[in-house]
Design a protein that fits this description.
InterPro entries: DUF1501, TAT_signal, TAT_signal_bac_arc. With 428 residues, the protein is an alpha/beta fold. It has helices at 3-13, 96-104, 121-130, 140-149, 177-184, 202-222, 226-239, 242-251, 260-273, 293-317, 394-405, 411-414; strands spanning 16-18, 37-43, 76-77, 88-89, 109-115, 156-158, 171-173, 279-284, 324-330, 333-334, 346-347, 349-356, 363-365, 376-377, 384-385. The longest helix is centred in the last third of the chain and has 25 residues, at 293-317.
Length: 428
């Protein structure tokens, strides 16, 4: 397969490989990764947290400006919840909220009253996943991948959300899996029959690969411009990644799920099980509900819960769950009450959900008022306080995530400091 054909198939596959600014290294193949696996799920558009984990019900027909159309008396509490703040959930027509929160209450941490300080989609997405309002800062997914497995071929997989790497690590975007199988076996005429004779013998293919590597290193040593080095590294990574893709295909199921979030979860789990992935951005859109808020939010939430449930179920079945950390967030929240189109507009106050290794389950931190304004927290007890205290920001969450991942003192993470200085004991 020549370069032109390879790149054409890569494009058709939706496989985008972006190199970091770190010069390519011709070291021996990186050892299989066995550390924690970080899944970051973005609910794109700005979810209405009062429609699930921070419910605010109507007082009835006499309520002049209801927060929601469901009644306050219909708000549910997850079965078995013993946290200081009860784990409540909003009622929904299809019962998806109840099913999800009742099933995962002992695994789930809910962070309410998170102030993103913005109602801009781009800025909100960035601060949620990088912990800062500033531009061009590496996401948590990029930092943990760079610090824990920067030499891995698919250390950071992304399906969207905020995946800026700022030169810390390569980001890989995976699309058409059938085309990926063709890329993984470029020396085979029919990828469905990998035992057939290839275009070249194994010995010839090995010599070709060795020659390509030597040529790349020779050209790279002559280049002093970082942008040219980065472009060369990108092309070389794309052309020499077949062996790593073979590892991925070994763990891919024969049939992928139809649901978008389920399919993303399948590929991410396969990459981790292959030992070539540290973190993955998954995503689902449809939460920007300026009109018809209730139906759209509840429909998208049902899909979100289904995707998370599938991810956790598969992780447990394949022995991954004990090492997995899941973080779920969105651009921001939705305004208190409805606009003239029965929709809700942008609101800076939101919530985040976390599950997995090192995350204390059956836990709710943060509280908002009846009109969904945030209350500050005591920085030691994390109890809501009327005066003083600390306003919970995404930066606080990221400080805790960095500590959890063991990268808070890492030199790569240190290049991207977080404005919030308080070390809140969110995870104990």
């Amino acid at each position: 397969m020549d370069r032109r054909d390879f790149l054409k198939i890569t494009s058709a596959a939706g496989l985008g490989i972006a190199a970091s600014s770190i010069p390519f290294s011709n070291d021996a193949e990186a050892a299989a990764y066995e550390g924690k696996f970080y899944i970051l799920i973005h609910a794109g558009g700005g979810w209405d947290v009062t429609s699930f984990c921070d419910p605010k019900g109507s007082k009835g027909e006499s309520d002049p400006d209801p927060m929601n159309n469901y009644l306050a008396t219909d708000i549910g509490t997850a079965v078995g919840s013993t946290s200081k703040l009860p784990m409540q959930y909003a009622p929904d027509p299809n019962g998806a909220n109840k099913a999800f929160f009742d099933k995962y209450v002992n695994d789930l941490m809910v962070l309410n009253a998170v102030d993103t300080s913005t109602n801009s989609h781009d800025v909100g997405t960035r601060v949620t996943w990088a912990g800062t309002l500033a531009e061009n800062k590496a996401s948590f997914g990029a930092l943990v991948a760079a610090a824990s497995g920067g030499a891995l071929p698919m250390a950071y997989i992304s399906y969207g959300g905020y995946d800026t790497t700022a030169g810390t690590v390569a980001v890989t975007r995976v699309g058409n899996v059938d085309a990926i199988r063709r890329i993984a076996f470029p020396n085979v005429i029919d990828p469905g029959n990998q035992n057939q004779a290839g275009y070249f013998t194994d010995e010839t293919a090995a010599r070709l690969a060795e020659t390509r590597t030597a040529r790349h290193m020779a050209y790279a040593e002559k280049q002093n411009l970082p942008r040219i080095q980065q472009s060369m590294g990108m092309l070389f990574t794309a052309r020499s990644g077949q062996n790593e893709l073979k590892k991925l295909t070994e763990f891919l199921p024969a049939q992928l799920e139809q649901g978008n979030l389920r399919r993303q979860a399948q590929i991410a789990l396969a990459a981790y099980r292959a030992g070539i992935c540290v973190s993955a951005n998954l995503g689902i859109g449809g939460f920007d509900t300026h009109g018809n808020n209730d139906q759209q939010q509840f429909n998208q939430l049902a899909q979100l819960w289904d995707g998370i449930d599938y991810l956790v179920t598969e992780a447990k079945a394949t022995g991954v769950w004990e090492k997995m950390v899941i973080v779920v967030g969105s651009d921001f929240g939705r305004t208190p009450g409805y606009n003239s189109g029965n929709g809700k507009d942008h609101w800076s106050i939101t919530s985040m959900l976390l599950m997995g290794a090192g995350i204390p389950g059956n836990t709710v931190i943060g509280k908002t008022t009846e009109r969904h304004n945030p209350m500050n927290l005591d920085p030691k007890t994390l109890e809501p306080v009327e005066g003083g205290g600390v306003r919970l920001k995404p930066g606080h969450v990221h400080r805790a995530l960095r500590r959890l991942a063991g990268i808070d003192q890492n030199e790569i993470a240190a290049r991207f400091p977080i404005k919030e200085k308080e070390e809140l004991p969110l995870f104990g």
